[in-house]
Amino acid sequence: MNDKGYPENFRQFSLMIVDKKSCIYAIRFSQIALDSLIINLNPYKMKKKILLGLAVILVLIQFIHPEKNESDDQTHNISTKYNVPNDVQHLLTVACNDCHSNKTVYPWYNNIQPVAWMLNHHVTDGKRHLNFSTFTKLPIAIQNHKLEEIVETVEEKEMPDRSYTLLGLHKEANLTPAQRELIINWAKTQMVTLKAKYPADSLKMKKRTAKSQ
To answer: Which domain of life does the protein's organism represent (predicted)?
Structure first.
């Protein structure tokens, strides 16, 4: 190139044309790529792809189900050691046992995912706090404490859990004040029985030490 910017020979002129063409192709390619990106980021198409992906996932998870709580092992059921009158047993069955025993009566919608996982979480968490089917395996102090918790949660209307009776489900679990009083008095009576049978110190929960915490 001379001092005026013109090519001095045919080779330089050819290279200049090639460079210009390359620039044109590069610009055109960039425009195509940008247009493609804009199309892919189109809100409608993105929404459609997301919905399609969710639909596929929803179909696939229908084949994955958690293990059901149906062992029905009642070897250490609370009734093997404590007096549980028929009227109290009925209330425990309709309002408590689905989440607090080894036998859950599952509704039809348990066959639908992710509902089955949600129900499994409720059952697992419920049994972790209180399981009437394994009640007598617990140390006596914990048994006494669990009876205290029954009184408190039923009295404060924390149990049955509101989600259990949501939308008219499990209507029998909507306990009346009289039914709540029946369960509360029963639990208190069992605590009195324990106090008469065991030393007071054995019924107290041991405080956790700093090491155990």
So the answer is: Bacteria
